[in-house]
Every structure is written in structure tokens, then in C-alpha cells.
Amino acid sequence: VMLPLARPLHAAGFHTLFIDARGHGMSDHDGYASMPRFSEDLDSAVDWTIAKEEVTGVGVVGHSIGAAAGILAAARDEEERIACLVSVSGFANVWDMMMESTSLASMPAAAAWAIRRTMEYVLETSLDEIAPVLHIPQIKVPIMIMHGDQDEVVGVHHAFRLAEAAPGAELRIVAGGTHGDLADFEARLGPVLNFLSNTLAPEVQ
Question: Which of 40, 90, 96, 203 has the highest local Cβ count within 10 Å?
């Protein structure tokens, strides 16, 4: 999904690293995939990247659950290894998103409750405790929130919830933008490139 952004990011002078979180793409499987585990994978990627001699700053651009993982990682990044964050089509609360865009909404309440409790048992935490909207206020570095107004998976209202929780964040709503097709976002990358350049100054990385 993110690959269409590779060429314009590279052309703008940025080093780019695209990662497959565990259980995705060519990465190894490790039991189950989850947002907290994705954020751990992102931590490892940031550590690997920032250790490179030619890198002076790291910005994270994440899509959907990748955006959520980026929020969790940046929120606990006390050393500010992550210099800035761009959240693309990210959700404020995963359970709210699931209730809005999956068949859960049509299930009996008891069945939905059982599914939620099973998820929380596996994760060993409450879904509300890992909600990005709860953690985004803890981020101290610049944030940009991008979201398509036609997102059929994560409603655009999630972007407004995240922005409300992080008053300093820059909010960009992409007209006609959907969830899985970043073509509309690619055409509007100018502000993102400016955001990254300004944040990672004096040298673009």
C-alpha cells in the first residue's frame, strides 16, 4: 500500500525504509499480529536506521495499523529518536473502527463482547489502553495527520479525534481519498514533503 510513496519520497532526497511487520509480506510469522507488536517492530527499524552514519534524523510515515503503531512508538520514545510522525488513515481506537466497518456491528452484543474479551486476553491488555487516541497526547515531536474523506474502513472522523487529542498536530483531509488506494494521497504529497523537510532540517534524510 505504501510503495506508491517511495518514488516521490526518494526524489525529494529522503532515505526510505519500508518494513513488513511480523506476519506480513516477507517477514517471519510469530504467533499472532497485533498493533503493540507492530510498534515493537517499528522500534527495531528506527534503531537500525538511526545507527546509520549518514542518517541525522528519522521520520515515521505509517498507514492504517502502521499509523497506530507509529503513534504508540513515538509516544514512548523518550529519547525522541523519532523526529516526526505522519499518520495516514490511522484509527483513534481499534475497537471503534471494527464496530464501524466490520460485521461486528450486526452481531448480538454478547457475541461482540466475547470477541473483544478474547482479543484482550490474547493481547494481555485492554483495547482502550492501547488506543492511539489515548497515546497521541504524549508525543512531543511534530505530527501530521492525513486522512481521506471517503475512507471506507477507518472513517474520517477518526482523524478528527486524533487531531483533537493532539492540538499541535497538522491535519490534512484528502478529498476523495479512500483507505487502500494512496493514489489521491500521492498527488497531494507536497505538504508531507515540506513537513518532513522542515522537521528533519537542517539536512533532509
Answer: 90
Domain ranges in the chain are 1-6+57-93+131-205, 95-130
Do residues 26 and 20 lie in contact, with contact meaning Cβ atoms separated by under 8 Å?
A: yes
pLDDT tens over the chain, length 205 residues: 677 788 888 888 898 898 876 656 666 666 566 788 889 999 999 999 999 988 888 999 999 999 999 999 999 999 999 999 999 999 999 999 999 988 888 899 999 999 999 999 998 899 999 999 999 999 999 999 999 999 999 999 999 999 999 999 999 999 999 998 877 777 778 899 999 999 986 444 4
Residue pointed to by grid coordinates 497485533: 34
Residues 3 and 32: their CA atoms lie apart, in Å, by 24
The H-assigned helical ranges of the chain are: 6-11, 35-50, 65-75, 94-101, 109-123, 132-135, 157-165, 183-186, 190-199
The one-letter amino acid code at 108 reads P
Q: Are 132 and 92 in contact (CB under 8 A)?
A: yes
CA pair distance 147, 87, nearest whole angstrom: 8
End-to-end Cα spacing for the chain: 22
Domain covering 1-6+57-93+131-205 assigned CATH 3.30.470.20 in the classification: no
